[in-house]
Amino acid sequence: MSRYLVTGGAGYIGSVVAARLIEAGHDVTVLDDLSTGFLDAVPEKADFVVGGVAQATAVLDSGYAGVLHLAASSQVAESVCDPEKYWRNNVVGSLALITAMRRHGVGTLVFSSTAAVYGEPGRGPITEDAPTAPASPYGASKLAVDHMLTGAATAHGLAAVSLRYFNVAGAHAGRGERHLPESHLIPLVLQVALGQRAHIDVHGDDYETRDGTCVRDYLHVADLADAHLLALAAARPGEHLICNLGNGEGFTVREVIEAVRRVTGHAVPEHIGTRRPGDPAVLIASADRARELLGWRPSRTGLDRIVSDAWDFVREVTP
After folding, report:
1. Where does residue 263 rank: exposed (0-12), middle (13-18), buried (19+ CB within 10 A)?
2. In terms of residue numbers, what domain contains 125?
């Protein structure tokens, strides 16, 4: 049993990571300012501290085995309009956290990175060696932290792992997506099934894909959380390991809508619109490195399973 700090542990992914750590027998402290997270998402057995990552120095001590850093501003469109917020929260905040870890002798960090660091890559499965060309300040801020971790590993012996997520969905142990505003496809389609939206907007059906709509790689949030536990075990002092996380296969927008129809029994009307600028036709991860170096094998890979777990969650929290 070890003791870990989870920053952003009241958010969607952070709360599931915290829950999986506790299920594995570890002690967990959650640090979250509740700006986008929810108090009821924090696991009951976790210690909870209200605050941002700048307060980490007051929370950490030498008894912590490591930090899982998931606190961040994460809205791509907002980052374009307010880039300063993303440099302040994501980059300056992460620097404060790394400084606090050095001060208290905590030497292991697992970082929540993103596929947004790759920008608009080619169609093939994306490896960690693909060029990084973020198309938004959000992606740029995450890439800046990746560079920061490489430097800290080299200079100070930090054991760091960056996990670059693709599309995350589903729910685990009563914890699921509650973004305000919501921008992710599966919860948006589920809002149609709940009667909260009249239809789902499909942004273009003329892509060179099997049904004309964009293809994305969807990963169950519990499989994603399991990768964090494996990353803790794989982290080595003086090394910064970067791993993509995805299923390695993609689903089209229409396939997601059809899965929601099957799971919910609702018709889910569509409205076909024009393409959005900057939307690649296909984004699929190569997760070979995570399989080889972390021993990670996602087990909840079916689209219907992902949608069904998300559907159970939204019905539970919707009045």
Report:
1. buried
2. 3-171+218-247
